[in-house]
Amino acid sequence: RNQKKMQKDSKIFVAGHKGLVGSALVRNLKKKGYNNLVLRTSSELDLSDQKATAEFFETEKPEYVFLAAAKVGGMIANNTYRGYFIYENMQIQNNVIHYSYKNDVKKLLFLGSSCIYPKECPQPIKEEYLLTGTLEYTNEPYAIAKIAGIKMCESYNIQYGTNYIPVMPTSLYGDNDNYDLEKSHVLPALTRKMHLGKCLMNNDWGAIRRDLNKLPIEGVGGNADEQEIIQILAKYGISFDGSKASLALWGTGKPLREFLNSDDMADACVFIMENIDFKDLVEIRKKELSEEEAKDVKNTFLNIGIGKDETIKDLALLIKDIVGFEGELNWDTSKPDGTYRKLMNVDKLNALGWKPSISLRDGLTANYNKYIQ
């Protein structure tokens, strides 16, 4: 197989280009002058359909593949739709990885998730902690699918000489984030709640109605009457007593979380695609381990993160400052905190020559400015 570098006119398939990661990948590739991107929405190409995926690869013959397509959700969705998450994700990755092999794709990057690691994991989390303990039960089906994807890449590399590299990003935020309060993750949810709280305090009903017209909450849009809007906001912890707004937040605020901007994440992925091969990761492994241990090729994937974390409370205060929310934050300690800490060890990626460039404050400020537009 020819392991030469990706060229500006190489045919590159970005699977899942509409999502948080996929859209950041497309922006990064275009910015770097890659001009032959193959993109398909899920309605144009259902990657969980084996026949459709096989035909796509045979017709298009992409040279490089970024596999960022996945069915994702928060804690509640992961636990509720367990069968759906394991089936859809395994189908997508089985099809894309297998037909990449069948059609001589030169290199593939597979995007996993930090939830692949054991629930009780030493911190910061190193790549070799994979499969050393029990997974978090709520998102186990999703995690198992991602682990299967890592092992599939590894196994194809060993048996067929392919060059497939899985990467495990930490929690991401950025352009194209999901601000739906019923399904969103912590950063977009905090940003939107503080924005709405600020609008209540400023009596800015025009802004509140615009917000709800764009993204209704449980079907309540901007045309609803004030009382109905106040009720639905209160249900999501945004309450207003006529002078001051307050937000009800879950837990103690003590758990630590690491966040990486999706544009930094994309930059890392393109850097890896341009500079790092499976054989490099095997070599690094051999240097780290005894000869006996290094016989088994495994954990040849890379964590992507910032390498430092913040408490949820500090994150909330940072967003409060960026948004300019002057109300109160009330922590509901009867609610669960979730995992105490999930910090990625990113020594391997840093040693290979990549580091993030967007600070949390800058990234979140840009996000909020984009959101209010």
Topology (elements, then pairings):
Blueprint: E1 12-15, H1 20-31, E2 37-38, H2 50-60, E3 64-67, H3 75-80, H4 82-102, E4 107-111, H5 140-160, E5 164-169, E6 171-173, H6 186-201, H7 205-214, H8 226-235, E7 238-240, E8 245-250, E9 256-257, E10 259-261, H9 262-275, H10 278-288, H11 291-294, E11 302-304, E12 310-311, H12 312-323, E13 328-332, H13 347-351, H14 360-372
Parallel strand pairs: 1-2, 1-3, 3-4, 4-5, 5-11, 6-10, 8-13
Antiparallel strand pairs: 7-8, 9-12
Helix pairs in contact: 1-9, 2-4, 4-5, 6-12, 12-14
What labels would you give this structure?
single chain; 373 residues; six-stranded parallel β-sheet; three-stranded mixed β-sheet; 14 helices; 13 strands
Average per-residue pLDDT, rounded, comes to 94
The structural class is alpha/beta
What is the H/E order?
A: EHEHEHHEHEEHHHEEEEHHHEEHEHH
Instruction: Give the beta-strand count.
Output: 13
Shape assignment: globular
- Strand order in space, largest sheet: 2-1-3-4-5-11
First-to-last CA distance: 47 Å
Task: Write down the Rg.
Answer: 22 Å
Residue stretches low in confidence (pLDDT < 50, at least 5 long) are: none
Instruction: Characterize the biggest β-sheet.
Output: 6 strands, parallel
